[in-house]
Amino acid sequence: MNPTLPSKLNMKTPFGSPDLFQAFSDKRSWEPGWMADFRKDSWNRFAALPQTKIKDEKWRFSPRARFGYSNCDQLTDSPKSTTLEGKSSEKVIFESFDQAILDHPNLLSILPSLTGPKLGSDATFLLGSSFSESGFIFKANKNYKEEEAFICKHFAPKQNHSLFQQNIVIIEPFAEVTLIEYFDSEDQSSTGILSNLSHIQLGEGAKLSRVVVQRLNSHSTFNHLEKVELGRNAQFTNVSLQLGSAQTRVESRGDIIGDAGEFNNYSLSLGRNNQLFDQRTIQHHIAPHGKSNLLFKNALLDNSKAIFSGLIKVDPAAQNTDSFQTNRNLLLSKEAEADSLPGLEILANEVKCSHGATTSKIDEQELFYLQSRGISKSIAEKLIVLGFFEDIIGQVSNVDLVESLRDEVSQFFNA
After folding, report:
1. Is 134 exposed, middle or buried (0-12, 13-18, 19+ CB in 10 A)?
2. Residue 270's beta-bridge partner residues?
3. Which residues are bridge partners to 236 per DSSP?
4. Which of 91, 95, 274, 323 could cysteine-pair with 141, CB 3.0–4.6 Å?
5. Is the full-model pTM beyond 0.90?
6. Confidence class of residue 6 from pLDDT cuts 50, 70 and 90?
7. What whole-number distance in Å separates Cα of residue 62 and Cα of residue 308?
């Protein structure tokens, strides 16, 4: 299959160049044929994307140009390997993306059937499918239970390059796992782009607790696209800390496809200077008796900005759904800005669903009280923000990890 001619939109980025794609394919010639076909098909679909709409609801309020690849128009030559802490065994597979292609190609064979969150970043998803050469594969066998967390450390590229990566997480029925992911920059000066695609599948009665800590340097761009599928009685709990990068785009989709699945998504973002956090979510209830709870909190200093657009969608068959969605924004300066777009699409009769969003300034009386006790304004603001975020961090059950996450937020004010 020959590469198609890039559309006008994608000719603006070198990633739409047939020569660049061919050079990448040649470098990956060791991969199996089905993987090469998958990459080529993904690239052809990217190249055929229509021009960007001037008005696109999935990018409402967002300065979309900040997420473009024009300033990071090269693939990194030698990406720093994803670091994994936690050993594979007869019951668990935990390997880097490249190693899994060699050792467990059957697990990666699902890639052509995966669709991503479909919340606006189709180009990034297809580029990730075309050019991924980093990430990890995790699979826990049926009934596996382990108290020790598995840890994965990702690294953004140097030298103003782009890095695309794929992660696949499969938790088989009745297994219980804790997974912690850290996102860091290799240096503090480059303007690299890290685009991370995650595909998570939970079988019947499976439980996954995940913590994500993003602390890229203040020049980087972070694209985080994820889709979570929950089977019958499965439970997913996610806690994310978005602390770094110049601009972050998060697209998170939870599909409750089995009866009584439970999807919990908690996130905090702490911004300063001109940081941008663009958050798009959907809680999609497909089966009955499902539960979902989403709480996104943003605390914004200086000229930082947050955008939240979330949707609860309940299909006709998803009776007795119990779903909540909340976005809270705390403005710590006159220049900070927050936009919220919560939404409901309810097609079932017997449901309990609600959504809400608030944006407020720091309580001057609370600030005055702390300062009157001899606490400096900067320390007082830190204490208030820590309190604001406590119901996010408190969702983590491990006491030591909770303290570590509090330290992450606290150190933000010391940087």
Report:
1. buried
2. 299
3. 208, 263
4. 91
5. yes
6. very low
7. 10
